[in-house]
Design goal:
Number of helices: 14
Structural class: alpha/beta
Helix content: 40-55%
Strand content: 15-25%
CATH superfamily of the largest domain: Glycogen Phosphorylase B
Order of helices and strands: HEHEEHEEHHEHEEHEHEHEHEHEHHH
Number of strands: 13
Distance between the termini: 20 Å
Radius of gyration: 22 Å
Number of domains: 2
């Protein structure tokens, strides 16, 4: 018999003798939403391995994804954003009779049923200049309102946890961190023994990823000391790509640079394994998966000293100020000329990446679900 709960504290009677049923918004899978898709894919992969007790996780897919997923779930139509989040997802959750809902960024702030919300970062709130007119306001207004209503807010680094608590005036104990990981396919391979040195950039092309500065630094290094230095860019076009995209196309036209666009997992792994180093000049990251993936493949990493990146990469990367082209150039040049340091970073990177686990993340997420229904 279900105990009445007029204060909305959770369906204790309904879940006391059975597993909690959690409906997960997994509609980003298959939609090319790189960060959200990687997070959800990793969570489901980790869940299959960890098999957390006491929680039945039911992902809600859109389009034709559910038939291809090894994790059983349910499916909704492939409608637009508003139809999906305001109509189809709430209907699917109701039909599942879930005890708890797990939204990823998006959740109806007026929702009465209990939910947790994953917020990878709040770049839209702290750097509205990187977004299209009205977009940052829309994101901030809705996501902040949902975060305040959520039982728990899940984020991916202590940097983000602190920033969300301070900027949105949320209790620190309401926000919990579950760190991501490099998936198992990213492993060391045979490094190339010959050929020109290659700088690898992996990310969607977007102002905060700072590709324009890297292209200028690459050009200066070619002119000064490394005429055969190559630049390989892996990633799709993001929004507001304008100036960086123009610079990239010019670099490709001049020779020595490649833009490979989106790559398969196997192609991305090969890119990490064969690059001289990954250069990650991002101005802001909630977590920063490409450096961790590169480390798992034994690829040396040199990256920004900002936001979450020092927290995630620790002593297994070299750092530079992403706003200083001189400092970026100096750190890259140092690594290009120091094979011993590159080998050291490759070894320490593999060890550092192994400290992260999607299975542990799944276990921690399961525990958060249970705490959310206890409050």
């Amino acid at each position: 018999m279900e105990i009445e709960d007029p204060l909305g504290l959770g369906k204790f009677g309904a879940v006391s003798n059975r597993a909690i049923k959690v409906a997960l918004d997994a509609t980003a899978i298959g939609r090319g939403k790189t960060g959200n898709e990687t997070y959800l894919t990793g969570l489901l992969e980790g869940w299959r391995e960890a098999k957390p007790e006491g929680v039945e996780l039911v992902p809600i897919f859109s389009g034709a994804v559910s038939s291809k997923s090894p994790h059983p779930g349910t499916q909704i139509g492939d409608g637009g954003f508003f139809k999906r989040h305001l109509v189809e997802l709430p209907k699917a959750r109701s039909e599942l009779k879930a005890d708890l809902y797990h939204g990823v960024y998006w959740m109806r702030p007026w929702e009465k049923d209990p939910f947790v919300l994953t917020v990878h970062d709040i770049s839209f709130a702290v750097h509205p200049e990187w977004f299209r007119p009205g977009e940052a306001w829309f994101y901030t207004t809705l996501i902040q309102a949902a975060a305040k209503k959520a039982r728990k807010v899940i984020t991916v680094s202590e940097f983000c946890r602190t920033e969300i608590a301070e900027k949105w005036d949320l209790p620190a104990d309401k926000i919990e961190t579950t760190q991501e990981a490099a998936r198992g396919l990213f492993q060391p391979g045979k490094k190339k023994k010959s050929g020109p040195p290659t700088l690898l950039f992996v990310s969607a092309i977007h102002p905060r990823k700072n590709l324009g500065r890297l292209i200028r630094v690459w050009g200066r290094l070619r002119e000064a000391r490394f005429p055969d230095l190559r630049l390989k860019v892996v990633g799709p076009t993001g929004w507001s790509a304008g100036a960086d995209l123009h610079a990239l196309k010019a670099a490709v036209a001049s020779g020595g640079a490649e833009w490979l666009g989106s790559q398969t997992d196997a192609e991305l792994k090969e890119a990490y394994q064969t690059a001289t180093m990954l250069v990650y000049p991002s101005l802001y990251e909630g977590f920063g998966l490409p450096p961790l993936e590169a480390m798992a493949c034994g690829c040396p990493v040199v990256c920004s000293n900002t936001a979450s990146l020092p927290e995630v990469c620790g002593e297994a990367a070299d750092y530079f100020d992403p706003t200083s082209e001189e400092e970026m150039a100096a750190k890259i040049a140092y690594l290009l000329g120091n094979e011993d340091r590159r080998e050291e970073l490759g070894r320490t990177g593999v060890a550092k990446a192994a400290e992260y686990s999607w299975e542990r993340m799944a276990e921690e997420t399961s525990a958060i679900y249970q705490r959310a229904l206890e409050e």
